[in-house]
Amino acid sequence: MWDWNFILDPPGGLSIPVILGLGFLLGVLHGATPDEHTWPITFSYSVGSYSSRGGMKAGFVFSSGFTLQRSILTALGFLGLATIYAVYNLDGPVYLAVGAVMLLAGYYLVRGSDLHLPLDHALERLLGRFFSDHGHHTTSAEPRKVAEEGEAGIKPVPLRMAMLHGFVAGWGFGGFAVIIVFLLAPQMPNVWWAALVGTCFGLGTMTMQVITGALFARLARLKRLTMAQIQRIGRSTAARTLYLGGLAFMGVGAVVAAAPWLSGVALATGNPIPNLNSIGYATVLVIAVVGVIGGSSIWKAYREVTALSPKPDRAPG
Fold first, then answer.
1. Which residues make beta-bridge pairs with 267?
2. Buried (b) or exposed (e) across 22-36, using 16+ Cβ within 10 A?
């Protein structure tokens, strides 16, 4: 019988179909629980898509990169190379990398728009030369800017960044990764079957991320708003969440890299499921990025668009 003990602490000698099934089920649980490597990123890209279909696409694209990474990781687990995680705590460097990608994606959205956030001018001076030829205050490319950004005035959210996010975020090592890398992958007959364990785990995560992406995207479809206003809210929220969330990830990453012992500081909840079994800095990061930054960004953008047009037409659908 597949009880919680069997799922979260699988024994040896399992058949290939059972291992793959467990991998998929663990991926579903991973995607459904508030994980700091999935929810903040999927939320950011999903609300920026301003539609359920776009949110589903954001969850799919992010999870595609994550699935590729997990396939590599379980293959490494079979080869014994992933034991490096048993010696070194890589959470800090992974947080820094994820935060940097989030910050760059948010900067891409903020640049050339009317949004102004902390350090954006400093980043403009540092990174402006690596992006296109228009910035915060240039007007020479105005026709192109209008064509690319539309009425909302903010660039579309680059979903290709979500795939990169998924691949980078996958190197974080939590309770679910321990199960698939150290308990399931080594039971497979060869490295290719071991990689398939990670693939199934990624597909399970993808299933839930597509669903949560659609739900997150619905947050931007507020009543009595025009489509242009919905776009404005979604993209503005994505810009702020990616940008400020990236700064938050990098801050936490720097602290954890300097003090790895913080990984063991958490309040136990008594729930056996990873991500729900304790409250630590990862939980706080999810709440901060999705709840505080994301929630306040939606409310701020909503007030901005309603202040400009108190009685807009209702959006279709």
1. 279
2. bbbebbbbbbbbbbb
pLDDT of 133 higher than 80: no
> Cα separation of 31 and 209, whole Å?
6
Q: How far is residue 251's CA from residue 44's CA, in Å, rounded to a whole number?
A: 18
Amino acid letter for position 315: A
Residue type, 317: G
C-alpha separations of 165 from 44, 54, 100, 127, 243 in Å: 11, 17, 10, 19, 14
pTM of the model: 0.73
Using H for helix, E for strand and C for coil, what is the string for the chain? CCCHHHHHCCCCCCCHHHHHHHHHHHHHHHHHCCCCCCHHHHHHHHHHHCCHHHHHHHHHHHHHHHHHHHHHHHHHHHHCHHHHHHHCCCHHHHHHHHHHHHHHHHHHHHCCCCCCCCCHHHHHHHHHHHCCCCCCCCCCCHHHHHHHHHHHCCCCCCHHHHHHHHHHHCCCCCHHHHHHHHHHHHHCCCHHHHHHHHHHHHHHHHHHHHHHHHHHHHCCCCCCCCHHHHHHHHHHHHHHHHHHHHHHHHHHHHHHHHCHHHHHCCEECCCCCCCCCEECHHHHHHHHHHHHHHHHHHHHHHHHHHHHCCCCCCCCC
Axis-axis angle for helices 91-110, 39-49 (nearest 10): 10
Alpha carbon distance 263, 282 (integer Å): 9
Per-residue tokens: 302: 């909503």
Rounded to an integer, the average pLDDT of 65-89 is 82
Tens-place pLDDT, residues 167-183 = 887 777 778 888 998 89
Distance CA 37, CA 173 (A): 10
Distances in Å between the Cα of 164 and the Cα atoms of 47, 65, 79, 161, 239 are 18, 6, 25, 5, 17
